[in-house]
Amino acid sequence: MIRVLARQRAAALLLLAASIPLAHAWPTTQAPDGGDPGCDSLASEPVNYRVVFEDDIQPYLGGTFKPQVMEFCEACHVDLSFGSMSLAPINVTINLLGLDGEGQPSNGYAYRRVTPGKPQQSLVFLRLNCADAPDTGGRMPPGSLGGAEDPQYLRLEALVHDWIKSGAIMNGSDRIFQADFDVLR
């Protein structure tokens, strides 16, 4: 009888532990060269292993009907196409990932717009996360103080990081899973 109770208690504890989300700490974001160029720390944001670009990130970029989030990119990159970078839902896959899904090159920058699996080598992440990362041209949108001053913006940075790190999968992509079998941070 005691063994049965002990097993039941152990099973209950395992179920309870499985239902509690694991808290992971984010490291301080570093520049690709290992320096700290003034990037925002994502330590206060939980890791998200299930980022769906169209549901979680596109509303922050704009072009959707989700008024509960601030569209950070809509005025310049959805309504207009500054820098040949349209983030409108109809164009966003090609403009971020290119035709081959390996990342669209950006004219005048050392980085591809998105390099699946590698946020620190993705111009989009660096432009959101770092005020003065090398070879990025500064933070977007221009004049933004970043996540240190705006919790919604920090959330966007974290979502973009997790989405890129887990393979930058988008609807219509023929890639099912691209990330390595490791933790996102």
Layout of helices and strands:
Elements: H1 2-19, H2 53-61, H3 74-77, H4 92-97, H5 123-129, H6 151-165
Overall geometry comes to: globular
Secondary structural class: mainly alpha
Q: Please, what is the average pLDDT?
A: 76
Give the C-alpha Rg. 19 Å
Tell me what portion of residues adopts beta-strand conformation.
under 5%
Summed up, the helix count is 6
| Weakly predicted, low-confidence segments | 10-35
> How many domains, in number, for the residues?
1
- Helix percentage: 25-40%
Order of helices and strands: HHHHHH
Beta-strand segment tally: 0
Cα separation of the termini: 44 Å
Structure, described:
There is one protein chain. This protein has six helices and no strands. The model is unreliable at 10-35 (pLDDT under 50). It has helices at residues 2-19, 53-61, 74-77, 92-97, 123-129, 151-165. It has one domain. The N and C termini lie far apart (44 Å). It is mostly helical and 185 residues long.
List its traits.
185 residues, 32% helix, single chain, globular
Short description:
By secondary structure, the chain is an all-alpha fold. It has helices at residues 2-19, 53-61, 74-77, 92-97, 123-129, 151-165.
